[in-house]
Amino acid sequence: MEIPTTRPTLTPDDEGYDEARRVFNGMIDRRPARIVRCTNAHEVAAGLMAARAEGLPVSVYGGGHSVTGSAVIDDGVCLDLRLIDDIAVDAERRELRVGGGARWGEVDAATQEHGLAVTGGRVSTTGVGGLALGSGSGWIERYAGLTCDSLLEAEIVTADGRIVMASEKENPDLFWAIRGGGGNFGIVTHFTFRLHEVGPIVLGGMLLYPGHMAREVLAFWRDFVTDGPDALGSGVALITAPPADFVPEPARGKPAVGVIICYAGPLDEAEHVLAPMREFGPPAVDLLQPMPYVAVQQLLDPGNPAGMHNYWSGDFLAEFPDEAIDAFVSHSQPPVSPMSQMIVVAGGGVLARVEEDAMAFGQRQAPFNLHLLSMWEPDHAQDQANIDFTRRLVAAMQPWTTGNAYLNFIGDEGVGRVEAAFGPEKYARLQQIKAVWDPTNVFCHNQNIVPATAPAASTV
Ligand SMILES: Cc1cc2nc3c(=O)[nH]c(=O)nc-3n(C[C@H](O)[C@H](O)[C@H](O)COP(=O)(O)OP(=O)(O)OC[C@H]3O[C@@H](n4cnc5c(N)ncnc54)[C@H](O)[C@@H]3O)c2cc1C
Q1: Do 338 and 375 contact (CB within 8 A), yes or no?
Q2: What pLDDT is attached to residue 7?
Q3: Phi-psi category of 301—alpha, beta or left, where left has phi over 0 and alpha has psi -120 to 50?
Q4: Which residues form the pocket of ligand 1, taking CB atoms under 6 Å from any ligand atom?
Q5: Which domains does the chain carry?
Q6: Ligand 1 nearest-atom number relative to CA 66
Q7: Whether residue 58 has pLDDT greater than 60
């Protein structure tokens, strides 16, 4: 059912309410007192102040893809940004201005008309808002940095209902904090990003190997990406081969290893760089070919439908030696659910060359980012087995992690994990900035940064 756009506020009895409160993770079933469908910053401010006046808690709905379901809140006010999804590309200045409720699929389509892109999510339905504020990891991050590395300016509704700008020049403390600090500091109604030359045709796709080759593939890939150029974006996923036409009949439904590639440089260079990876094995299925960048950005869409049950965790890896590969493979295979994807993403490149203190997000030097994505049919009877499976894998990988999780990839694992994600110094600085911009923690329905007890002067 479509959500009616003519009705600005939806309450439980309204048509479209159930559709509007739905989020990506089918385990989440929250019932806001009302859902305020905002179309601009003034409406966001009004919706926020009305909720505060009534003493109601608020949530912010960007694209609804947080696995914690933080977009919706029981008995509170959901400030829904999905109608603020305008996209304006200034190809000459190489800048993108985009609404806080837009999704990556539409953004990629618009920027690619000009052969430009900003690092975006690997599934096209993901929201720009939550992903960018959590820093934003995508296939071209080694080439163009994380999403937040390209942020130039943001229009923000603050906890006290003001509309302010944040950039290097205006409110630099706020600008520092929103690049990785998530939705803790205000509601971003518009982002302006720097754009980079990408595509429109890139060498991209997937190499698929049988599951029994997982250890060899991971070891080869680890060394291959570590030495690779910035333009090489890649990840490996331990999956179950889908029942798709491109998969040979006997391999379908069996454990498999997918190496995903997005090469952001020229095609001839890409063919040359990728030759060793292609020749290694060789793969059971080679889907690596020149294709539109927007197609690479949608490669994982079919495997990530909305409404399934999800439990996610992850960690940055400090190293990925053979023993870690062994632990990863033996605890990932066989999975409990054939929909689950245990993913390792390669770091390095441009993202690793940004100063550690440049913004809230750090963790620049971790060579790999582990994303443990358990997904299964929407059946509560299967929940515990999948959660236990994921937790066992998390525990098995502990010896090789940095101890700092990537907040975009984890569920609700408590304030301790949020603090650890930034490290004690950065977390303390974020608490000071939070005390300035949101001293009473209005924006707490998220990966929460607790404000320092006494509001402090700007720290940046
Ligand atoms: C299928 C799938 C694929 C993913 N792939 C990637 C990936 O490739 N790279 C990556 O980095 N992450 C990825 N993620 C994780 C994703 O970035 C985070 O879950 C992110 O929070 C989603 O943003 P959203 O706006 O869709 O979510 P929402 O659930 O709407 O928002 C999550 C929280 O972010 C905050 N927020 C959202 N928008 C705004 C805004 N405009 N202003 C202020 N606060 C806001 C709010 O606190 C909100 O509660 C993926 C998630 C899914 C489900």
Answers
A1: no
A2: 61
A3: alpha
A4: 24, 59-67, 70-71, 81, 100, 121-123, 126-127, 129-131, 133-134, 136-138, 182-183, 187-188, 304, 408, 446
A5: 9-80 (3.30.43.10), 87-197 (3.30.465.10), 201-409 (3.40.462.20)
A6: 19
A7: yes
Cα(360)–Cα(45) distance, rounded to whole angstroms?
Answer: 25
The residue behind tokens 């053979």 is: 322
Question: Residue 289: its pLDDT value, please?
Answer: 96
Q: What is the mean pLDDT of residues 174-201?
A: 98
The predicted model gives 13-42 an average pLDDT of 97
Does the bond joining 200 to the residue before it have cis omega, within 30 degrees of 0? yes
- Whole-angstrom Cα distance, residue 164 to residue 238? 44
SS (H, E, C) the chain: CCCCCCCCEECCCCCCHHHHHCCCCCCCCCCCCEEEECCCHHHHHHHHHHHHHCCCCEEEECCCCCCCCCCCCCCCEEEECCCCCCEEEECCCCEEEEECCCEHHHHHHHHHCCCEECCCCCCCCCEHHHHHHCCCCCCCHHHHCCHHHHEEEEEEECCCCCEEEEECCCCHHHHHHHCCCHHHCCEEEEEEEECEECCCEEEEEEEEEEHHHHHHHHHHHHHHHHCCCCCEEEEEEEEECCCCCCCCHHHCCCEEEEEEEEECCCHHHHHHHHHHHHHCCCCCEECCEEEEHHHHCCCCCCCCCCCCEEEEEEEEECCCCHHHHHHHHHHHCCCCCCCCEEEEEECCHHHHHCCCCCCCCCCCCCCEEEEEEEEECCCHHHHHHHHHHHHHHHHHHHHHECCCCCHHHCCCCCHHHHHHHHCHHHHHHHHHHHHHHCCCCCCCCCCCCCCCCCCCCCCC
What's residue 453's pLDDT? 76
Which tokens belong to 389? 């499976």
Segment among 65-74, 131-140, 273-282 with least mean pLDDT: 273-282
State both tokens at 330.
Answer: 């033996």
What distance in angstroms lies between residue 315's CA and the mean position of ligand 1's atoms?
A: 17
Q: What is the mean pLDDT of residues 199-219?
A: 96
Report phi then psi at 294, rounded to 5: -65, -30
Task: Answer yes or no: are the C-beta atoms of 140 and 198 closer than 8 Å.
Answer: yes
pLDDT at 430: 97
What is the arithmetic mean of pLDDT over 9-32? 97
Closest ligand 1 atom to 136 CA:
11
Cα–Cα dist 97/190, whole Å: 7
State in Å: Cα 301 to ligand 1 middle.
Answer: 15
